[in-house]
Specification:
The complex is a heterodimer of chains A (about 350) and B (about 450). Chain A has about 350 residues and is mainly α. Chain A is built from 13 helices and no strands. The longest helix of chain A is centred in the N-terminal third of the chain and has 24 residues. Chain B is α/β, with parallel strands linked by helices and about 450 residues long. The chains are: A mainly alpha (about 350), B alpha/beta (about 450).
């Protein structure tokens, strides 16, 4: 009898593995962002295309250079820098000079992500760190909103994009030469409401990617269906922000906008669906993310209603990011058979 | 609340019960689910380890050169936490000595050489009849029949049937979940030996004095449930009225004791406790079938049904295989692919990878799965934990595998045990299965548990 002689490999169980890897999740987030990017290019034209490409390229290049400089293999293959780049680009106001776009992108990856140890270790959403830096450094440029649906948007790039570093950009060339105000600013400073349908379909002034709530929601639904996004986070934000604005709207309809306006104006949709749901910077348990979402919703309404700024999504998310390790510690799962004991609290 | 549960409320469609957590690996059962149980031939030499169960090794009562009939007693139980061992074939004892075991150690065992032309005839012993036997007599008969948890745990079945003072057994759960991918041996037993299953439950009900028995079956094995229902209707005895058959959701690890109890009764077994603490005893469906098949004739286990499957096997199927058959002989018989690279004892989720083919089939072997280079070629990319929380959602013990993994990487083993309930982990592998960063979580937990045990031993 010819005996069977085989060299076997020994491995520990489990020997099968779900097909999903980190880069698959990240790639899917990129796919989910593409409709929003496309719409942004449609209403803002070449300036959106240029800014998104430059923002993404800057983030990927920064990550690559940082990895190489610190003697590690480049981690751009995990696609997370692409997401950061796209998200960061989508939060920028149309017409922002490109040198600022580059600067914020470098800050987003270096200070927002790499300083903490790279993917998986960042405390804050890197894209928002980049944007927060720009907001603090260039407050004027960050509140100049280029017009939408300009007639020459596909043939002309506004000259402000090519402003030289540390020069005051000229906004003269933008279509009719007037910058428009965002619905939130109109509401806050002029008590002027924007029509709901314009808000929902995204034909309003605003950052490159925050205008069309419907496409953002569609992207979110796609990710939630594939379990790559915890639907509880945006839902908690919508419910909290919606409820608070409903209460104030009933009390004083002149001063405070209705819930639909609240949810579809400014960066709330983009923030709630794509920024707050950053897996790394949000809590892990299903109870934790509801608290986290509620905190974001509350902070947004506090800043919008009583703050000096018309918009508060960015700061609300960054603050909640800082809170998430603490939320995590308080909402650990209850161990099976322990009679409701929470992990980390009581010794077994 | 999960989205699925929400949908259920909206659509009004009721799904079978289940536990919180778990994963859905590819079932891969169709390779062998339709294959009837076939008899395996005798190997030229059988290697029968003396310790095929949890507890003390059996004491051999045979000597070298002795000739034995098939089914004759080879070894007696050594105390209560031990069971008897029977001869798998009529033959002669070649020697009693060391043989390789699955964990790489050498263990004591009996080398048996079957006679050429040895038949499948089995020697009968003293029968234990359901109508006449008392509870204690049944427990003893189960021990002497050498019955252990045939799902893979190999815990002596008789040892869990008697409730200690002050406790009573209310429900007997018969575990027919069979949640491991590839394995179909329990399914075939339920289909082909449904009468034995029902008779076995009769014995178990009498032994435990439980009021009712529930057979829990995953809903991907509906034919088995129907076949058992039919057998239940045909059973004339009174006890049949106390047996029910319940479908549970197909989800891994539904077949673990604690998750099955959660699904069927909605109760949680206390940490560090036993099913007995909630008045439950769980017995594997194949163990129940063996009790029903063997006890009326006073026989012991000489063979068992295993699934041999996987892409590395040429004739996958369900086989009635003599205990002690060397794995090499079994694989030669079913034929293996040239690209064979890994063989797992049990299913691919919890099964142990074999160091060599020299070990033999024991009572706890529910099957083996062979993978080829195609499946095992490592193309996994490793990433840091991105806090996706897939592992937290998957853990059936409701632990935080992500946090445990971080603590393990920092060698904070005591914290893992003290604050993060590491010891509640039964290494089902759900966390490592879903991890998109491919972190070897289960392996880290095994190391941590060993370090903690070592630390405790030193104190």
């Amino acid at each position: 009898m010819n005996t069977l002689h085989k060299t076997l490999q020994i491995k520990t169980s489990p020997h099968v593995k779900a097909a999903l890897n980190v880069d698959d999740i990240m790639r899917n987030v990129v796919w989910a962002l593409l409709p929003t990017c496309a719409f942004s290019i449609y209403i803002f034209g070449l300036s959106a295309l240029l800014s998104l490409v430059i923002a993404t390229f800057t983030c990927v290049a920064t990550e690559h250079v940082m990895c190489r400089r610190s003697g590690k293999t480049s981690s751009i293959g995990d696609w997370s820098a692409v997401i950061t780049g796209l998200l960061y680009g989508l939060t920028l106001p149309p017409g922002l000079p490109l040198w600022m776009v580059v600067m914020g992108g470098v800050i987003a990856i270096s200070l927002g992500k790499y300083l903490f140890g790279g993917l998986g270790y960042n405390v804050f959403n890197p894209a928002l760190v980049g944007r927060a830096f720009l907001q603090a450094a260039f407050p004027t440029a960050m509140t100049m909103w280029g017009p939408i649906l300009g007639t020459d948007r596909f043939t002309n790039v506004p000259s402000s994009l090519f402003a030289l570093p540390f020069q005051i950009p000229s906004y003269q060339s933008i279509a009719d030469g007037v910058t428009s105000a965002t619905p939130l600013a109109l509401m806050k400073f002029d008590q002027q409401l924007t029509e709901s349908s314009h808000l929902i379909f995204g034909v309003t002034a605003g950052s490159y990617g925050e205008t069309c709530g419907l496409l953002i929601l569609a992207g979110g639904l796609y990710l939630a269906a594939r379990k790559m996004l915890n639907w509880r986070i945006p839902v908690a934000i919508f419910v909290t922000a919606g409820a608070i604005s409903a209460v104030f709207h009933t009390l004083d309809p002149q001063q405070y906008p209705d819930p639909i306006f609240t949810l579809f104006s400014g960066g709330l949709m983009l923030g709630a669906v794509f920024m707050a749901t950053d897996m790394v910077a949000s809590p892990m348990t299903n109870r934790g993310v509801i608290v986290y979402g509620a905190v974001i919703g509350l902070l947004i309404m506090v800043i919008r209603n009583w703050g000096g700024l018309p918009e508060g999504v960015m700061y609300a998310i960054l603050l909640a990011n800082a809170l998430s390790p603490h939320i995590d510690a308080m909402t650990q799962p209850k161990v099976y058979g322990s009679g409701g004991k929470q992990i980390g609290r009581n010794s077994p | 609340m999960r989205l699925a549960t929400l949908l259920q409320h909206v659509t009004g469609k009721k799904h079978p019960p289940t536990f919180t957590g778990g994963v859905h690996p590819l079932e891969s059962k169709s390779l062998t689910a339709g294959q009837v149980i076939r008899q395996f031939p005798f190997a030229p030499v059988m290697n029968i380890p003396l310790n095929q169960h949890i507890g003390k090794p059996s004491i051999p009562i045979v000597r070298e050169g002795q000739e034995l009939a098939r089914g004759q007693l080879l070894a007696e139980p050594d105390g209560f936490m031990s069971v008897a061992l029977h001869s798998p074939a009529s033959g002669v004892i070649k020697s009693i000595g060391l043989m390789p075991a699955i964990n790489g150690n050498m263990v004591m065992g009996i080398y048996l050489q079957p006679f050429p032309g040895s038949t499948q005839e089995v020697a009968d012993g003293k029968p234990c009849l359901l109508a006449q036997a008392s509870s204690d007599e049944i427990v003893q008969a189960i021990q002497m029949a050498g019955i252990v948890g045939l799902g893979g745990a190999a815990f002596p079945t008789h040892a869990k049937l008697k409730a200690p003072e002050g406790k009573s057994i209310d429900t007997l759960i018969i575990n027919g979940a069979e949640c491991e991918p590839y394995l179909t041996n329990d399914y075939r037993i339920m289909l082909e030996q449904s009468e034995h299953v029902i008779t076995g439950i009769g014995y178990l009900l009498k032994a435990t004095k439980a009021k009712r028995a529930i057979i829990g079956i995953e809903d991907n094995k509906q034919p088995a449930a129907q076949r058992l229902k039919l057998a239940l209707q045909n059973e004339g005895a009174d006890f049949a009225a106390n047996i029910s058959i319940e479908l549970v959701q197909t989800k891994y690890p539904q077949g673990a004791e604690k998750t099955l109890i959660s699904a069927l009764l909605g109760k949680q077994v206390p940490s560090h406790g036993l099913p007995l603490d909630v008045g439950v005893v769980v017995v594997n469906v194949t163990s129940a079938a063996e009790i029903g098949r063997l006890l009326p004739h006073g026989r012991g286990i000489q063979e068992r049904v295993i699934t041999i499957s996987g892409p590395g096997v040429k004739k996958p199927g369900n086989y009635q295989i003599p205990i002690g058959t060397p794995l090499r002989f079994a694989l030669e018989y079913v034929g293996v692919s040239d690209a064979l690279s890994q063989v797992y004892l049990g299913g691919p989720m919890m099964g142990q990878a074999l160091p060599s083919l020299d070990i033999s089939i024991t009572k706890g072997t529910s099957g083996f799965v062979a993978f080829t280079n195609e499946q095992t070629r490592s193309k996994k990319k490793h990433y840091p934990c991105i806090h996706c929380s897939y592992c937290i959602d998957a853990c059936p013990m409701h632990l935080n595998p992500s946090q445990l993994g971080i603590l393990a990487a920092n060698k904070r083993y005591q914290t893992m045990a003290d604050q993060y309930h590491l010891m509640a982990c039964f290494e089902c592998g759900s966390c490592a299965f879903v991890c998109p960063s491919n972190i070897p979580l289960v392996q880290q937990f095994r190391v941590a548990k060993n370090m903690i045990r070592k630390g405790q031993a030193e104190q």
